[in-house]
Each structure stands twice: as C-alpha cells, then as structure tokens.
Design goal:
Radius of gyration: 18 Å
Distance between the termini: 46 Å
Number of domains: 2
Order of helices and strands: HEHEHEEEEHEEEH
Strand order of the largest sheet: 1-3-4-5-2
Number of strands: 9
Strand content: 25-35%
Structural class: alpha+beta
CATH class of the largest domain: Alpha Beta
Number of helices: 5
CATH architecture of the largest domain: 2-Layer Sandwich
Length: 166
C-alpha cells in the first residue's frame, strides 16, 4: 500500500501548506524519519531545532501518515509508525547507523537555542580540521543530528592528507 492509499484509508486531512513540486525537484534527496510519537517529534523539532511545519497528514487516531518540515529551504519528511507503510521507529536497542547532517547560517546561535530548549548534546561545539564548526544532538527518540557552519576554507588536498593520518 502506498502513502496515497494509506491516507485515503484513514480519512486523513492535510494541514498547513503543500510543499511546492519545484522544491522537491531542486532538493531530490530527503531524510525520511519514522517516530513512535510523530506529533511530539514535530513539536520538538520546531521548538528546539527551528524547523517549520510545511504539511502534515494526520490520521484519525492522531498519528501522522506523512509530514514535511523545512529549515532554511531544506526539507525533511517524517511519519508515525504505520504498518500499512512498513514504517518503524528506532526501538532503542541498537545504535543508530546514520544521522541527519545540516549546514546552518549561525551554528553558535543554533547550538545555544538547542541547549536552552533542553536538547541532549552528545558532542559540543567543535572546530574540525576540514573547516566546519559543528555539534551533535539527539532528538527525544534517539535520532542523531549534526549541525555545522563553514568557518574556514581548507584545501581538499590538505583535508585528504589529514584524514589519512587521523
């Protein structure tokens, strides 16, 4: 069953605005995360990391069949656990093998906001030898996020040499 069928089956309604197809065509790759409690995750991502809700398709029981969020023109998608779509949230028994990595305009401000809102910081602000300043945080369901800002231009050859000796 595809998303359209799941939404029709649930009598879901869309909230907010529709994501323009031109943006989908520009970005092409979207992180898609599944949460046990997607409505709470959406609220948290908006409040703590500064995302804006673009669209949401809630189902009758309050779960989210599909949602799109945006941060400075970059989109992520998410949903609640839905058997019809074979979407499952992390169960906390394993270490995530991936993370969402985002560039932001002011990583210091973003970091301070995340701290003030109670994000779990797992790596504080650090300058990396490849020219980025970054930090890592966990969201309430255990997804790892990294946020960074370029602070220095470093020649690729120099980065490659440092990575070999890392």
């Amino acid at each position: 069953m595809d998303l359209r069928e799941a939404v029709e089956m649930s009598n879901a309604t869309m909230t907010d605005v529709r994501m323009p197809d031109t943006l989908i065509d520009q970005q092409q790759i979207f992180p898609y995360l599944t949460y046990a409690d997607a409505p709470t995750a959406i609220d948290w991502l908006r409040r703590v990391f500064g995302f804006e809700l673009v669209s949401s398709y809630p189902v009758d029981d309050g779960r989210i069949a599909h949602a799109a969020l945006c941060y400075d023109g970059v989109y992520i998608m998410l949903s609640s656990e839905l058997e019809q779509l074979d979407n499952h949230a992390p169960n906390g028994e394993t270490v995530p093998t991936s993370r969402v990595h985002m560039h932001v305009h002011d990583v210091e401000e973003h970091y301070q906001r995340s701290l003030l809102e109670g994000a779990t910081i797992i790596q504080g602000l650090q300058d990396k030898f490849w020219g980025l300043r970054s930090y890592h945080a966990l969201d309430p369901e255990g997804y790892r996020w990294s946020f960074c800002q370029r602070v220095q231009e470093v020649p690729r050859e120099h980065v490659a040499q440092l990575l070999l000796n890392w």
